[in-house]
Amino acid sequence: MSASSLLAQSLVAGYGERTILNDVSLTVQAGKTTAIVGANACGKSTLLRVLSRLLTPEQGEVLLDGNAIHRLPTRRLAQQLGFLPQSPIAPEGITVLELVSRGRHPHQGLFKRWSAADEAAVADALSATHMTALAECAVDELSGGQRQRVWIAMALAQQTDVLLLDEPTTFLDINHQIEVLDLLTDLNQTRGTTIVMVLHELNLAARYADRLVAMAGGNIYAVGEPEEVFTEQMVRDVFGLESRVIDDPVTGKPMMIPLGRHGACK
């Protein structure tokens, strides 16, 4: 799989009369993992929706390998770019295998039948997410972490060069958060998939991302490697929080220690 680049140029977007993104431009580096962070309602999810073509911008455009995504045929875009929204809901009673198989729909022509390539892609996706043994189980009977792995498996079966994920660790306990982020890192490192994800947990974003995008008030505050972006000043400006940023003793990446009114040593 070859890495693909994504470029947003001068995006203005919102909902109805409410503008959320204000002249946002962003270059997503091919083959890298990018994490978007910021306070609630700063425009993170809106930016991801525009990048995935779920939301059409009022101004500006998004280019995938130099092609404007809003002018690409839907099937062709779905073969190149996958999107996993927040808290997706599976149809009642659907099995893991059935849901993951839906990732192959973009590769099915009007009269094209299920092929050996489709079978292999689904099997590979189930194996990569450690869901093979649960293939016949109903999705709604699984744990939160398992369900999230099923959705990621569906995205893997789609076999896109770019994968966008909106808060893939929301509502998961820390063990399952690490499990999902490790899986995405494996995907990036073994397949070269370009990954863009919105994350709430700053320390996990800094640990797992090659690049951070910090947003504030519908604009991009800073973009760069975690060591460049993740500073006490950024945390103060973007989140309104006083903190100390130290080196993660495990990875050496930046790690934030929040300072609260009752957090000081006594």
Describe the structure.
This protein has 266 residues and is an alpha/beta fold. The radius of gyration is 19 Å and the shape is globular. It has one domain: Rossmann fold, CATH 3.40.50. The chain has helices spanning 44-51, 74-80, 96-101, 116-128, 144-158, 174-191, 202-208, 226-229, 232-239; strands at 6-15, 18-28, 33-38, 59-64, 67-68, 81-84, 162-166, 194-198, 211-216, 219-224, 243-247, 254-258. Strand 9 and strand 10 (219-224) form a beta hairpin. Helix content is 32%, strand content 27%. Helix 5 runs parallel beside helix 6 (174-191). The strands form three sheets. The chain has a six-stranded mixed sheet, sandwiched between helices.
Key descriptive features of the protein:
266 residues; alpha/beta; Rossmann fold; six-stranded mixed β-sheet; four-stranded antiparallel β-sheet; globular
Brief characterization of the structure:
Residues 6-242 form the ABC transporter domain. α5 (144-158) runs parallel beside α6 (174-191).
Q: What percent of residues are in strands?
A: 25-35%
* Major pleated sheet: 6 strands, mixed
* CATH architectural group: 3-Layer(aba) Sandwich
Mean pLDDT, as a whole number? 91
Number of strands: 12
